[in-house]
Amino acid sequence: MEIAIRPKLDRAAVEAIVSKHLPGAVEFVGHEEFKDGFFNAAHALELADGRHVVVKVAPDKAHKLLRYEVDLMATEIECFERGLAAGVPMPALHYGDPEGGVMIINRLEGVTLPNARADMSDAEFLAVRREAGALSARFATVTGERFGYPRKSGRTVADTWSASFLAMIDDVLADIAENGSPLPRPVEEIRAAVAAEKDLLDEVDRPALVHFDLWDGNIFVVKGESGWRVEAFIDGERAFYGDPVAEIVSLTFGSEEEQAASVEGFLGRPMTAGEERRLALYRIYLMLILIAECDVRGFDEELTAHQRGWSTESLLKNLAILEG
To answer: 197 and 75, same structural domain?
Structure first.
């Protein structure tokens, strides 16, 4: 799929990046471009010495981006560095240039969870869901200096979670208003519904690292002698420091049984009423992002209609939870 903002690089350009930034002389024997991502360019290279690496390159800074998307590569590099140090399974990071928007990481051996699903029994799939929940909880052991996105601008950084999260909401609502993205409710009503939950948000008193993009396509799995297991998580560009409960948003896109398995793995217990309500807030935020990005990513009409349709439906469902 062609995405307007995704950089277009040929094999020679990707090889030049690796030659410049990996130590020693390297010889290339294979190349593959991944075209299923919606933001960064991603290319795999096989080296003659047996190594397999992936090169990620951020969109040109001249492109119009959503406000939260500025400095995304810097965020992803920080997510990798701090996540790996905390024991989160992620590909090894060989090189990261936040300013230049380049990363070089190991290529994983497994496949994404959707690609493995047909070969799993229901029991195996739920077991992987629980494991993914438990492993992703390691992100939350990392503590940031303050709440918000680790951006140079510091626009969403604050000492309280409510102030930071409302700044994040304000940014995406400003994107929506600026681009004329269709919303089922007025911008002012949506902001007011979130702002009314200030006290609930401020029950969160530690800025934990949140990946915030652990949908199944970013979970790699491998099959060993004892069955399927999680190999690693990828794509940490949406990461921020905030409420650990926000991680549950992308972990629970499946059926009720699958959602329960993910929550069991992540928390080790059922969610409290307050956590359920905060989760609705974070689902609202993600749905606003998904609606807003349709106007800057260059999606085709079919993908735009599909993404706007289901994200709008989810937005309304979660607003109703707050208002109910």
So the answer is: no
| Rg, Å, the chain Cα set | 20
Q: Model-level pTM?
A: 0.94
What are the tens digits of pLDDT across the range 293-302? 998 877 888 9
Give pLDDT tens digits for 237-269.
999 999 999 999 999 998 999 999 999 999 999
**What are the tokens at 170?**
């304000």
Cα distance between the two ends of the chain: 40
Look up residue 177 and give its amino acid.
A
Angstrom distances, CA of residue 89 to CA of 21, 134, 202, 221? 23, 11, 30, 11
Pair 79, 187: CB distance under 8 Å: no
The pairing of strands 219-224 and 208-210 is: unpaired
205 and 249 both lie in a single domain:
yes
Q: What is the mean pLDDT of residues 41-55?
A: 95
The pLDDT of 271-282, averaged and rounded, is: 97
Contacts of 310 (CB under 8 A, 6+ apart): none
Boundary residue ending a domain (86, 106, 126): 106
**C-alpha–C-alpha distance, residues 324 and 320, integer Å:** 6
CATH number at residue 156: 3.90.1200.10
Place of tokens 């995704």: 6
Q: How far apart are CA 186 and CA 246, in angstroms?
A: 24
Span of 25-39, 144-158, 273-287 with lowest mean pLDDT: 25-39
For the chain, how long is the longest CA-to-CA vector? 63
223 domain-assigned: yes
Q: Determine the Cα–Cα distance for residues 93 and 259; give it in Å rounded to an integer.
A: 30
Rounded CA separation 86/138 (Å): 7
